[in-house]
Write a structure and sequence with these properties.
This protein has 269 residues and is α+β, with helices and mostly antiparallel strands. Helix content is 23%, strand content 10%. Strands 4, 5, 7 and 8 form a four-stranded antiparallel β-sheet that branches.
């Protein structure tokens, strides 16, 4: 195999829906669901911020993109978090100062949902706190074969009933011929996690761990074959590269990620 790994970086989401930009596409369907499940967008993030700015104590999340009939969004929609509850009034006041409300969002670049002043304010908040730190890197100790060992694919090592498709025990495998010690722990962030079936007898049950929409109502949405079959199109490696040569130990992905973040935070006791 080659010694270089070239990244296929997706274009900046600039689709506008109902006057709000920053989305991968106008609707979630068979051709776009992978983007909405795997790559965060400023459109979805902006909708979450607008919900924070709402005057309602428990605002309804209003994602402007379309979805299949008789369906609703799940927490596998990249950027969507849990329901928003009561919060300090200062949050709404601060956002209003940036002309962000529950019904409006000022964009600095049309179609992107990019707000420069808001971004700078968040950067200033982080810059004025001493609770974050970074580890020193000794470059002489860093493996020289990093680009090669990054050709990793990860699959869940067990069928688990979890709310998010990336909160599962997983086992990464490497197509490289380097030592397993050089694989590192980058896989814990889930960029290459395969969408394998979860528990359940029906397709709706099996895809509940990774699908960004779920059926609702008396005649709920049923995922068509094409939608289901292309779920890993952005994960599959070219022929001849995906041959498994090394396998790491199984680890819980979300807990490993939290441990990485925790190391960056000083405990003030």
């Amino acid at each position: 195999m080659g010694k270089e790994t070239l990244l296929a970086i997706p274009p900046l989401p600039t689709t506008a829906v109902q006057g709000f930009g920053g989305y991968h596409a106008a609707a979630i369907n068979e051709n776009t669901h992978n983007l909405f499940e795997e790559i965060p967008s400023l459109g979805i993030a902006g909708d979450m911020v607008m919900a924070l700015a709402s005057q309602d104590a428990e605002p309804t999340l209003n994602f402007h993109i379309g979805k299949p009939p008789n369906s609703d969004f799940t927490t596998s929609l990249a950027g969507k978090f849990y329901l928003i509850g009561p919060r300090h009034p200062e949050i709404g006041q601060r956002l209003a100062g940036f002309r962000i409300t529950g019904t409006s969002f000022t964009e600095y670049v049309a179609g992107t949902r990019f707000h420069l002043r808001y971004l700078i304010s968040l950067s200033d908040i982080l810059g004025n706190t001493d609770t974050f730190r970074t580890d020193k890197i000794v470059f002489e100790n860093v493996g020289m074969m990093g680009g090669e060992t990054h050709v990793i694919h990860t699959r869940p090592s067990e069928i688990a009933d979890t709310e998010k498709w990336y909160e599962r025990n997983l086992k990464p495998t490497s197509a490289a011929v380097s030592a397993t010690a050089e694989m590192g722990v980058a896989y814990c962030f889930g960029f290459q996690l395969y969408k394998d079936d979860g528990p359940g007898e029906t397709r709706s049950g099996k895809v509940a761990n990774w699908s960004c929409v779920t059926g609702t109502g008396r005649t709920p949405f049923e995922m068509p074959d094409g939608w289901y079959n292309n779920r890993n199109d952005r994960r599959n490696l070219p022929d001849g590269i995906g041959t498994e040569r090394f396998r790491a130990i199984s680890m819980r992905q979300d807990l490993t990620l939290m441990n990485v973040v925790r190391r960056k935070i000083k405990t003030n006791l």
